């Protein structure tokens, strides 16, 4: 996936959020301040807007999760597309290769026999007498379990952890990092909604439209920076080991 494709997908999702915010602002303007709060039409409209505000939280979180997933999958995809093997990538990506090949072994239902069989299979392929088969097995394109993002937990702490695991340098400017903690609040509110701990109206009533506009700007600044550093990482092929760097 190219940087242009990632940005196009991002823009489409971001536009949905902007449309929702415009919808909320437009309908808020219809609420006359002189009308009594007990007026049924006004009460129903306020309730609907609160639900829409909470729904915007879900849109923001989906933007976060989708962007982070695409950003890091883009790195793995580039390694696959270039037929890079385990032996040629840097240590962090060798760990990713191993984690993917052992991921299902750590399922609660997995046994020692499952672990042993997986190890034997990997060793047999690596030390196969037919070197071509061994080399092919070590390619990222032959991962037993594809790398995928764990959903429902995306915020700044998790993103920084992913960057460390992928050896991606993510130096966030002060003007962005000062406001990036809002990603944690958005994740928490999203999980409250997803798990049924709070209703949409309960979440929405505590949020102003100005809050949502501000949060959207903060999320946008953070995610665009992430897209930039990860696509630069792919362009410069920084996943290669230091002893083997392919030309850009």
Would you mind describing this structure in some detail?
With 248 residues, the chain is mostly helical. The protein has two domains: 3-83 and 150-235; 85-138, no CATH class. Helices cover 65% and strands 0% of the residues. It is elongated. The protein starts with a helix and ends in a 13-residue tail after the last helix.
Based on the model shown, name its key terms.
248 residues, mainly alpha, 2 domains, 10 helices, 65% helix, elongated
Tally the helices: what do you get?
10
Tell how many strands the DSSP assignment holds: 0
The percent range for helix content is 55-70%
Shape category: elongated
Please tell me the total number of domains: 2
Helical/strand content category: mainly alpha
Structural topology:
Layout lengths: L2 H26 L11 H42 L9 H12 L9 H15 L4 H7 L18 H10 L8 H4 L4 H13 L5 H6 L3 H27 L13
Helix pairs in contact: 1-2, 1-10, 2-8, 2-10, 4-5
How would you summarize this macromolecular structure in one to three sentences?
This protein has 248 residues and is mainly α. The chain has ten helices and no strands.
């Amino acid at each position: 996936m190219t940087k242009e494709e990632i940005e196009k997908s991002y823009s489409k999702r971001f536009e949905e959020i902007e449309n929702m915010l415009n919808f909320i602002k437009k309908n808020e303007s219809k609420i006359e301040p002189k009308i009594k709060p007990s007026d049924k039409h006004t009460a129903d409209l306020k309730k609907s807007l609160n639900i829409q505000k909470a729904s915007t939280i879900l849109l923001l979180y989906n933007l976060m999760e989708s962007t982070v997933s695409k950003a890091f999958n883009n790195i793995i995809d580039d390694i696959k597309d270039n037929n890079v093997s385990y032996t040629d990538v840097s240590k962090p990506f060798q760990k990713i290769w191993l984690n993917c090949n052992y991921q299902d072994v750590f399922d609660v239902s997995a046994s020692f026999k499952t672990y042993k069989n997986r190890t034997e299979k990997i060793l047999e392929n690596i030390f196969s007498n037919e070197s071509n088969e061994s080399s092919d097995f070590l390619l990222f394109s032959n991962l037993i379990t594809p790398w995928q993002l764990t959903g429902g937990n995306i915020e700044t702490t998790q993103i920084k952890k992913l960057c460390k695991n992928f050896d991606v340098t993510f130096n966030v400017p002060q003007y962005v990092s000062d406001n990036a903690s809002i990603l944690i609040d958005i994740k928490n509110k999203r999980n409250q909604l997803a798990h049924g701990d709070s209703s949409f109206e309960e979440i929405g009533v505590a949020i102003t439209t100005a809050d949502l506009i501000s949060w959207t700007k903060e999320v946008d600044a953070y995610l665009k920076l992430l897209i930039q550093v990860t696509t630069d990482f792919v362009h410069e092929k920084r996943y290669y080991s230091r002893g083997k760097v392919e030309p850009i």
